[in-house]
Amino acid sequence: VATTTSDIRTASRFEVLRGVYAAGSTTRQALAAAGPLSFATVSNVVAELLDAGVLVETAYEASAGGRPRARLGVNAGRGRLAGVAVSETHVRVEVFDLALQQVSSDQRPLRLAEVGAEELVAAITAGVTTAIAGSPAERSEAPGAGRDGAHESGVLGAGVSLPGYVWSRSGAVPLFDGMGAAGGGALGGRLARELGLPMVTDNPLKAAALAELWFGAGLGARTLVTVTLGTGAGAGVALRGALLRGATDSAGEWGHTTLVLDGEHCRCGARGCVEAYVGAPAILRRWGRPAADELTGMAELAAAVRAADPVAQSIVQEIGRYLGAGLANLVNIFNPDIVVLGGWVMDQLGEWLLPAARATAAARALARPFAATTIQRSLISAHRTCLGMAAFALENFLRDAGVPSSRSTPIPVRH
Ligand SMILES: [Zn+2]
Prior knowledge:
Elements: H1 5-23, E1 26-27, H2 28-34, H3 39-51, E2 55-61, E3 69-74, E4 80-86, E5 90-97, E6 102-109, H4 117-133, E7 155-161, E8 165-168, E9 171-174, H5 187-195, E10 199-202, H6 204-215, E11 223-229, E12 233-239, E13 242-243, H7 275-278, H8 280-286, H9 294-306, H10 310-334, E14 338-342, H11 344-364, H12 367-371, E15 374-377, H13 384-400
Parallel strand pairs: 4-7, 7-10, 11-14, 14-15
Antiparallel strand pairs: 1-3, 2-3, 4-5, 5-6, 8-9, 11-12, 12-13
Helix pairs in contact: 1-3, 2-3, 4-5, 6-13, 8-9, 9-10, 9-11, 10-11
The structure holds zinc ion.
Zinc ion binds near residues 256, 266, 270, 273 and 275.
């Protein structure tokens, strides 16, 4: 919630930038007409973003009787951003230009529950360094970019997501025992020192929601729910363009809501959680082939379903029904416009899980909210969590540096 003048100014910048990303190329007039900000506020924020080299004026179009209107675009070459998704099984790094198009990537295995802080920091640092070295560092050639020649196209920052942790004023806090000790404390500060980059850290469920909000199916949604299926399961919620974080930052931990009373044991310590039925270890256990490497195990299950193995087929149907019951709960609680599913388990099994889940959700959710909800797979081509963390890094860059803050006093966002 934007409460201070500085927060309101930052929120206005994100609102304008989100509008430019959504449109690709647009005008001040169109941004004001499409969003909640006044034309005066849009003009002030655009001026700041032009000064910072984040936006460029790409062309001019005639307007009836007035001055020509400038078309605005994102200055892709202004700099790069690294988005890092640490999962229970690997570290994935994607580097993006400022248009948030992926330009390079790195992926390396890591058993999160078994490593210490040193090893985690080393793996992330190696991944980010390798990915950045593999990305083209071109200076912008867009007209108007860096008019004074002062804008270097360096790496503007990095965002790192860690599953099972939430963030408080004192740093990262594990949601429950068993997440390993590596991610606690001052991980962000240590990484910032190792990498020499501005750094933000957050939970992957929040990153997925931000990615859909800015670049995915959530662009026009008033109430967006994202579901991520991997080793764990969780949801992200965005209301009117803002992430729902809750009192202690753990809103969206849908994976640890009860699906079956006194059901399967969950790693959080409770029983019958959604995650204990639709998480990757549960799926592979049900198949009777718990794998040392979950990604390989899931690929084998997908291949078996594709080869019409009846056991594999019945397992994905059954998992789909559990997933659907969990989705029905989300639909009834949040009444979302859209529920977008992603994560590496969805990538592997989504084509079978989703129809089964949708059918179960239709039978169990209330008819009116279900009819108003679109349930679909993510359309984002980059790794969704990496993209979201790069967007968080961009927010951080806009908040802390590069944009002069004395030019204007934007009015509050109207809702
Ligand atoms: Zn649980």
